[in-house]
Amino acid sequence: MDALLRARTSRRQLLGGALGLGGLAATGSLSACGGASGSSALAAEPAAALDGATIKLMVNQPHRLAFTELLGPAFAEEFGGTLDVTAVPYDQLTSQQVLDVQGGAGEFDVFDYFYFGLGDLVEAEALVDLTDWVGANEDIATGDFLPAVYDPYTLLDGRRYGLPFDGDTHVLYYNAEVFERYGVAPPATWDEYDEAAAKITRDSGGSVYGAVVQAQQVPMILGCSFVNRLAGYGGTLVDESGRPTLTSEAAVAALQHLVDVQPHALPTPLQTGFDQANSAFLAGQGAMIDTWTDLGLKAQDPESSQVVDKWGVVTLPVGGSNTTPRTALEAGFGLGVSSGSGQPEVAAAFVKWATDRERNFLLASTAGSGIDPARTSVLESLEYAEAAGAATDVIREGLTSDALAWPRQAGAPKLLQDLVDQLALAMQGSQDVESALSTAQDTWERELG
Prior knowledge:
Layout: H1 2-9, H2 21-25, E1 30-31, E2 41-42, E3 54-60, H3 64-79, E4 82-88, H4 93-102, E5 110-114, H5 118-123, H6 131-136, H7 147-154, E6 155-156, E7 159-160, E8 163-166, E9 170-175, H8 176-182, H9 190-203, H10 219-232, H11 249-261, H12 274-282, E10 288-292, H13 295-299, E11 311-314, E12 333-337, H14 344-354, H15 357-364, H16 376-379, H17 382-388, H18 392-399, H19 412-428, H20 433-448
Parallel strand pairs: 3-4, 3-5
Antiparallel strand pairs: 1-2, 5-12, 6-7, 8-12, 9-10, 9-11
Helix pairs in contact: 1-15, 10-11, 10-19, 11-19, 19-20
């Protein structure tokens, strides 16, 4: 891992007229054949040179630091090139990427995309098919990508449209000092979580809230909180045949848990997103938070944390009759080439570079990057363990497990938003739990057939 340590320090319309498929094919490396929706495909050839290149990227807002402060300087040092980064709020990311291509702007070379948005992007022909190109570049070392994320993040209908960038899963962080003060133990079940949250909030007189619940009304936030509990109760979003299972006993229990925990949680969960939740935990205002695995890096950073050496981490709790913990792929990300790029070969070479072993280690081991391991060699390395500290074993367990993947076919973002809207109504008390989930189930059944 010496090189890693060195790196750490140092829909259906494409572009019309002349900017359409013919214009892209003029680059000499794109062909009209490829994915199921007719997306352009990059030829099976070695990766292009990146010397002096300027790459324009549309990225998820929480990933801005990763691109501007970590990858950008490394790219400039190695290639004399420039990363031109536009960060977009996570609730707009997929739609803005589709719009850039279908609207005719074609401004970007590379998309940092939600894996659950993959179907929408492919249907819109917004991503270049990289299947043959990936196969021709053995040094990408695709076998090193974590099996839990490689296909879910990049594969649709047998074609590959990107490479994994951010191996997102959740774990449960807790404030060990607060737990000791109020005599509670790290929870193994959601019932124990409830008891601990209620006791801490009550006994502290509200000076510390027993839980931080992220429930901002978007799939990336409330969707993750629901799926964490759904998996814990042994449920899934769809069954093996693809039929939605949103009215299952596990789904009802998961949503009821979100409804019931609110009095013991940081106020206004439905207004609590990623930044507010993390800040509250790091400030010692919340005793538990189920969130992305990189929080531990920030928790140990004295510049951003008041809980240095005062926190612990466990796998997400189980509930009901389920006794086997299961993590979920919570809104993870791939990097793909925009079909609107005027330099698709160079863009693909950047995707290869930005997702390689060295870059994944650099990002996954740096506090505030928002990036988690996507490669086995990084996850299992001693150097990553040194960076992740106490969270290492729990992170490894989640990312090497049979993780629950979200739907990613065309229309999945809308389905997930429809679900989240119903979850929010139940949390507001505007609908009972069963009615909210029944409405979501009906919507999913109509859309999925």
